[in-house]
Design goal:
By secondary structure, this protein is α/β, with parallel strands linked by helices. It folds into 2 domains: 124 residues, Aspartate Aminotransferase, domain 1 (Alpha-Beta Complex); 221 residues, Aspartate Aminotransferase, domain 2. It is built from 14 helices and 13 strands. The strands form 3 sheets. The chain has a 7-stranded mixed beta sheet, with helices on both faces. A 4-stranded mixed beta sheet has the order 1-12-13-10, with helices on both faces. The longest helix has 25 residues. The radius of gyration is 21 Å and the shape is globular. The structure holds pyridoxal-5'-phosphate.
């Protein structure tokens, strides 16, 4: 494995220091939950190794969200990040190729690259509304393709796939004889209601998700893999056992507590997301320097400074960061032009979001090159 640190991790707010940031528009999750809000009692918990596949009640509650899924089809992992790592290292080798959408959450591309596998990028273009072109997806499959990898709702663009699009991608994967990975980490924040779990649609599909984003729980590392392919799940379990043996007893108890009250937490989150999304949409409509594809889920969008504008992009980020203490996810975090930026609108408080958005407008105006 050829590991290297990714800019999105090196430059993340937790590495920079939260105290240095006035307006934090970098996050892709809802505000981090306080421990007390979960109301979980650990006093009787024995700190033993846990069930290697994950707490049975937790897996049962996760499976109950997909038609025809059983607890055995679910493997708990330390976050969605570990789920993606397990899947990539199980299915890919240096002789193989992955077909993966770009831009993307960096790990979805970086781990296959670190394995040494050939990476075919299926570009999502601003001009196409960042829509997945399933015709292009089909045409890019080769005999070496060992995994097709999609993300919905998508990070960083906030676009979402329909059930029909997921089904078509699953058909393409089935015909290619390879699994379809659907990273559904933002599924509970889909504006039009969640699409069915991919793993419930097709035996070729593998669903990945976690509690990090919608519930603001990235500090408990609980995510999961879902697949109806029992042989594959056994191999994923072997991988998990070699990495961590089992999940943390503390994390899994907290995850069970969240899942029991999930509907209640989700309703509050969705109402907050709607307000933050509307504030962001109003801001977009009020300014002239950036354009966007309106998101359909999650808490991020991926606007860009209009290509025709003569704006010094490095100066824009310098002013934004150093003078206004405002941070967004610059395009290079996602292997994209730095005119693009990911704005996380769900994490900051309303005042912080409003100030941060205004600071983007001000920094863009100040970084405009004077015509001679
Ligand atoms: C699409 C996507 N998948 C997976 C992850 C990993 O999340 P976690 O490991 O906290 O569940 C992230 C985090 O940003 C993400 O955006």
């Amino acid at each position: 494995m050829d590991y290297r640190r990714m800019p999105i991790e090196i430059e993340s707010p937790e590495q920079l220091g939260y105290d240095k940031i006035k307006c934090n528009l970098t996050e892709s999750s809802m505000p981090d939950m306080k421990f007390d809000a979960l109301g979980v009692d650990f006093s009787d918990l024995t700190l033993a190794y846990t069930d290697h596949a994950g707490d049975p009640e937790l897996r049962q509650m996760i499976a109950a969200e997909g038609e025809g899924l059983r607890a055995e089809d679910v493997l708990a992992t330390p976050g969605a990040a570990a789920a993606l790592f397990i899947i990539a290292t199980t299915l890919l080798s240096a002789r193989d190729r992955i077909l993966v959408v770009h831009p993307n959450y960096a790990t979805n591309i970086e781990t296959p690259r670190a394995i040494g596998c050939g990476v075919d990028l299926l570009e999502l273009r601003f001009e196409d509304g960042f829509r997945l072109d399933t015709g292009r997806l089909r045409s890019m499959v080769t005999p070496q393709t060992k995994l097709i990898s999609l993300t919905t709702p998508h990070n960083p663009t906030g676009t979402a796939l329909s059930e029909a699009e997921i089904k078509e991608a699953a058909d393409i994967a089935e015909q290619a004889g390879c699994p379809l990975l659907v990273d559904e980490t933002y599924r509970d924040m889909a504006f039009d209601g969640p699409a069915p779990l991919a793993a419930s649609i097709s035996p070729s599909a593998i669903s990945v998700s976690s509690l990090s984003k919608t519930y603001g729980l990235p500090g408990i590392r609980v995510g999961w893999i879902i697949s109806k392919n029992a042989a594959l799940m056994e191999t994923f379990l072997a991988a998990k056992e070699q990495i961590v043996i089992c999940g943390s007893a503390l994390d899994e108890r907290a995850a069970v507590a969240l899942m029991r009250r999930k509907k209640e937490f989700q309703a509050v989150a969705l109402a907050d997301i709607r307000r933050a999304f509307e504030a962001t949409r109003d801001w977009m409509a009020s300014q002239n320097d950036l354009e966007w594809v309106e998101p359909r889920g999650g808490v991020v969008c991926f606007p860009r400074i209009k290509p025709a504008l003569d704006i010094d992009i490095d100066e824009f980020y310098r002013i934004l960061n150093e003078e206004y203490g405002t941070y967004v996810g610059p395009g290079h975090w996602f292997g994209m032009d730095r005119r693009h930026m990911r704005i996380g609108y769900g994490w900051p408080k309303p005042d912080e979001l409003a100030a941060g958005l205004q600071n983007i407008t001000r920094a863009a105006a100040r970084a405009r090159r004077k015509s001679t």
